[in-house]
Amino acid sequence: MRRSSLSTRAPRAPARGRPEELPLRPIVDALLTGRGLGVRRGGRWLVRHVDLRVAPGEIVTLIGPNGSGKSTTVKALLGIERPDEGQVLRRAGLNVGYVPQKLAVDATLPLDVERMMRLTRRLPERDLRAALEETGVPHLRKARMAELSGGEFQRVLLARAIAGRPELLVLDEPVQGVDHAGEISLYELIADIRRRLGCGILLVSHDLHIVMAQTDTVICLNGHVCCQGSPQSVAQSPEYVSLFGARGAGALALYRHDHDHAHLSDGRVVPVPHEAGCAHHAPAPLPHLHAEEPHVR
Ligand SMILES: Nc1ncnc2c1ncn2[C@@H]1O[C@H](COP(=O)(O)OP(=O)(O)OP(=O)(O)O)[C@@H](O)[C@H]1O
Which parts of the sequence are annotated with region: Disordered (predicted)? Predict the structure, then answer.
């Protein structure tokens, strides 16, 4: 039977003696695409010529030194900052969960976790409870935001971002104020959320050696895209080494083996198929995309 790669029709009933044909998967479009993105403020380009895309189920991590334009790029992609150049394409009606880089809660504000979760939307009890459980903080429901530890605070923000079952999760430095062990478990939680929700994730991080184990595509930014690709290919690129030094590159190499197993939330380690290194993340023309405001939570 001749099959078109674009077809999404159900397969015919299998002929006797022939193996059943699996239904063809529909073409999966990117959730979010930036093409030639540039943001200019105060007479200078903060970022320029940025191409990136996030597909469903993919973790894309933006790394780069302080002031390299990571948050600016994220804000431009989400429509929070207006780009001066290039194009942002978001899947129509895209549901986004966003944890911004800066979110300070005044110590005098009597804001508890439950109210924080419901601050900007109606959230049914079931969804609120599920989100807090998924991020491991159901016991903090009545706690005051201002009294949470760094790790607890970040978990609540994550719960708030996933409560609406987003298709895309955007996390701008989600492990701020978290100790080393807490960072590792937060990144494992993020990878676990990706597996459970099947959402795409755009992550901004400084924690190269930890985050790399969970990342599909790394984009190394320094006002422009210096290099991009799988963690392994980026670690070997001269641009990356010159930005982060050989020590940073060496730290990535240490984590190559992590791709052969996964950590479950109950502590078990299970084998996963070896990923044979992602291809470079070249933006390609995408049909069915509309430039419109996303539904950012
Ligand atoms: N609205 C603005 N007007 C002028 N300059 C800005 C504006 N927003 C950001 N910048 C500058 O743009 C540069 C990039 O900032 P951005 O916050 O995107 O960097 P970053 O890579 O996220 O940094 P960090 O790792 O320190 O969080 C910085 O020099 C910052 O001061």
Answer: 1-20
What's the pLDDT band for 247 if we cut at 50, 70, 90? low
> What's the maximum distance between 2 C-alpha atoms anywhere in the chain?
72
Determine if ligand 1 sits within 6 Å of the CB of residue 68. Answer: yes
* ipTM exceeding the 0.90 mark: yes
Reported confidence tier of residue 232, pLDDT bands at 50, 70, 90: confident
Q: Cα(249)–Cα(254) distance, rounded to whole angstroms?
A: 9
Q: Are 39 and 46 in contact (CB under 8 A)?
A: yes
Q: Whose CA is nearest to atom 30 of ligand 1?
A: 67
> Coil, strand or helix: which one is 165?
coil
Ligand 1 pocket test, candidate residues 44, 63, 71, 211, most atoms within 8 A of CB: 71
Cα first-last separation, the chain: 45
Residues counted in the chain: 297
- Is the distance from the beta carbon of residue 67 to the nearest atom of ligand 1 less than 6 Å? yes
Interatomic CA distance for residues 223 and 67, integer angstroms: 8
Evaluate: CB of 83 within 6 angstroms of ligand 1: no
φ, ψ at 158 (rounded to 5°): -65, -40
d(C-alpha 206, C-alpha 187), whole Å: 12
Among 27-31, 156-160, 192-196, name the one with the lowest average pLDDT.
Answer: 27-31
Q: Is the CB of 46 under 6 A from ligand 1?
A: yes
d(CA 113, CA 141): 5
- Determine the Cα–Cα distance for residues 105 and 157; give it in Å rounded to an integer: 12
The string of DSSP letters for 118-153 reads TSSS---HHHHHHHHHHTT-GGGTTSBGGGS-HHHH
